[in-house]
Amino acid sequence: MAEESKLTRIGLAGLAVMGQNLALNIAEKGFPISVYNRSTIKVDETVERAKKEGDLPVFGFHDPESFVKSIQKPRMIIMLVKAGAPVDQTIKTLSQYMEKGDCIIDGGNEWYENTERREKAMAEIGLLYLGMGVSGGEEGARNGPSMMPGGSIEAYKYIEDIVLKVAAQVPDSGPCVTYIGEGGSGNFVKMVHNGIEYGDMQLISEAYDVLKSVGKLSNEELHQVFSEWNKGELQSFLIEITADIFAIKDDKADGYLVDKVLDKTGMKGTGKWTVQQAADLSIAAPTIAASLDSRFLSGLKDERVEAAKVFKSSGVDDILADQTVDKEKLINDVRQALYAAKICSYAQGMNLIRAKSVEKDWGLKLGELARIWKGGCIIRAIFLDRIKQAYDRNPELANLLVDPEFAKEMVERQSAWRRVVCLAINAGISTPGMSTSLAYFDTYRRERLPANLVQAQRDYFGAHTYERTDMPGSFHTEWFKLAKQINN
């Protein structure tokens, strides 16, 4: 227990693995920390870990009152508990012992409007509130995550010296943390980060599927390919861990572990929220939406098993058996297709953040977000440097695709990208992420789309009116009457 004369600098409530690791990280950076959890065994476990990992200044408390009172004023308490009702319950438990000017920081993946609601409620009783997205998983929490705090600027100033040291440190660009903006902006940015992550993971899984199913690459070859890719333009955390996964042998049976993993993907909701927000803001995010749909379809395992039986006799699977490809050429094409499609996922995410920033008047800086995502977080990648430079060149950039550097790269890679998508389609391999990313690129770069026909249809059946290309104004045509005259 901390003595009264030795109050800690900060508190942390919620000691699942992320909470434990973040507490140890904070302590290791020289900030004495109080910890609390409803289940007292987690408190003792954390204190024990602190002793083993370097006698770190972590002080455990079994009751909320002594926990809160062990922290110096103004008190700062980070919560790392499950989003929703558990957050409200934790706030209720802790706030009754807190005083005006104290600060609560939610480090979970919370819906941004909940954060805004809580910030207002806390302000009414004199407490400050931050919603701080934390990315990087267990390893990031322990060794340096990317952190996205939004809400009270006064609260951020209290915690700034701590988070600047605790966040991942990237040479030449600094700590992976910045004050995001007001209200729920920190949670919103973290949500979209996770949406981009959904897209990124889907695209990587499709690259794997094409290489394995069409190219017939073994796990050893896949490990080598992804390891090699991680030395170049695709260098990123997700490519790195993918290379590792292909190398892990099964400890319960012969073969590789990845082949024994059931093909059903879980989710916690941030990807769904991202797609819903994109729809609400009329922002096209097809790569992210395709990744979400793919997770839904993966959950239909039993139905897919039955469907496979239905179509097996139809000869659909024979298409794949007929494919013969040049392995080296395929590997190179898939690398280029993956890179181009990934840019689309990031572009869609950035457009969504900008649209929300405009709607809420948050004033978010997209280049700064790219900077704090360069280290610690799940979507950290070498090309985030390029994204930051693109927004530095033009803060008002309409879309990453039209930045001169990225536009050049998309053009250079489009032939390989088209070859991979065509090959996959002809082989009966679904690549929804790569295909829809290509459609997004092809739609965005065309001056004229067939939307004129859709608008004409809307006017025909619903008198929704249309605009013309050759004169201003809103027009309506009685298409049915004209068509009847022609047909007669």
TrEMBL record:
<comment type="similarity">
    <text>Belongs to the 6-phosphogluconate dehydrogenase family.</text>
</comment>
<dbReference type="InterPro" id="IPR008927">
    <property type="entry name" value="6-PGluconate_DH-like_C_sf"/>
</dbReference>
<keyword id="KW-0521">NADP</keyword>
<feature type="binding site">
    <location>
        <begin position="37"/>
        <end position="39"/>
    </location>
    <ligand>
        <name>NADP(+)</name>
    </ligand>
</feature>
<dbReference type="InterPro" id="IPR006115">
    <property type="entry name" value="6PGDH_NADP-bd"/>
</dbReference>
<feature type="binding site">
    <location>
        <begin position="81"/>
        <end position="83"/>
    </location>
    <ligand>
        <name>NADP(+)</name>
    </ligand>
</feature>
<feature type="active site" description="Proton donor">
    <location>
        <position position="190"/>
    </location>
</feature>
<protein>
    <recommendedName>
        <fullName>6-phosphogluconate dehydrogenase, decarboxylating</fullName>
        <ecNumber>1.1.1.44</ecNumber>
    </recommendedName>
</protein>
<feature type="binding site">
    <location>
        <position position="458"/>
    </location>
    <ligand>
        <name>substrate</name>
    </ligand>
</feature>
<dbReference type="InterPro" id="IPR013328">
    <property type="entry name" value="6PGD_dom2"/>
</dbReference>
<feature type="binding site" description="in other chain">
    <location>
        <position position="295"/>
    </location>
    <ligand>
        <name>substrate</name>
    </ligand>
</feature>
<feature type="binding site">
    <location>
        <position position="464"/>
    </location>
    <ligand>
        <name>substrate</name>
    </ligand>
</feature>
<feature type="binding site" description="in other chain">
    <location>
        <position position="109"/>
    </location>
    <ligand>
        <name>substrate</name>
    </ligand>
</feature>
<feature type="binding site" description="in other chain">
    <location>
        <begin position="135"/>
        <end position="137"/>
    </location>
    <ligand>
        <name>substrate</name>
    </ligand>
</feature>
<dbReference type="Pfam" id="PF03446">
    <property type="entry name" value="NAD_binding_2"/>
</dbReference>
<dbReference type="GO" id="GO:0006098">
    <property type="term" value="P:pentose-phosphate shunt"/>
</dbReference>
<comment type="subunit">
    <text>Homodimer.</text>
</comment>
<dbReference type="Pfam" id="PF00393">
    <property type="entry name" value="6PGD"/>
</dbReference>
<dbReference type="InterPro" id="IPR006114">
    <property type="entry name" value="6PGDH_C"/>
</dbReference>
<dbReference type="GO" id="GO:0019521">
    <property type="term" value="P:D-gluconate metabolic process"/>
</dbReference>
<feature type="binding site">
    <location>
        <begin position="14"/>
        <end position="19"/>
    </location>
    <ligand>
        <name>NADP(+)</name>
    </ligand>
</feature>
<dbReference type="InterPro" id="IPR036291">
    <property type="entry name" value="NAD(P)-bd_dom_sf"/>
</dbReference>
<comment type="pathway">
    <text>Carbohydrate degradation; pentose phosphate pathway; D-ribulose 5-phosphate from D-glucose 6-phosphate (oxidative stage): step 3/3.</text>
</comment>
<feature type="active site" description="Proton donor">
    <location>
        <position position="197"/>
    </location>
</feature>
<dbReference type="InterPro" id="IPR006183">
    <property type="entry name" value="Pgluconate_DH"/>
</dbReference>
<keyword id="KW-0560">Oxidoreductase</keyword>
<comment type="function">
    <text>Catalyzes the oxidative decarboxylation of 6-phosphogluconate to ribulose 5-phosphate and CO(2), with concomitant reduction of NADP to NADPH.</text>
</comment>
<dbReference type="GO" id="GO:0050661">
    <property type="term" value="F:NADP binding"/>
</dbReference>
<dbReference type="InterPro" id="IPR006113">
    <property type="entry name" value="6PGDH_Gnd/GntZ"/>
</dbReference>
<keyword id="KW-0311">Gluconate utilization</keyword>
<keyword id="KW-0570">Pentose shunt</keyword>
<feature type="binding site" description="in other chain">
    <location>
        <position position="268"/>
    </location>
    <ligand>
        <name>substrate</name>
    </ligand>
</feature>
<feature type="binding site">
    <location>
        <position position="109"/>
    </location>
    <ligand>
        <name>NADP(+)</name>
    </ligand>
</feature>
<feature type="binding site" description="in other chain">
    <location>
        <position position="198"/>
    </location>
    <ligand>
        <name>substrate</name>
    </ligand>
</feature>
<feature type="binding site" description="in other chain">
    <location>
        <begin position="193"/>
        <end position="194"/>
    </location>
    <ligand>
        <name>substrate</name>
    </ligand>
</feature>
<feature type="domain" description="6-phosphogluconate dehydrogenase C-terminal">
    <location>
        <begin position="186"/>
        <end position="480"/>
    </location>
</feature>
<dbReference type="GO" id="GO:0004616">
    <property type="term" value="F:phosphogluconate dehydrogenase (decarboxylating) activity"/>
</dbReference>
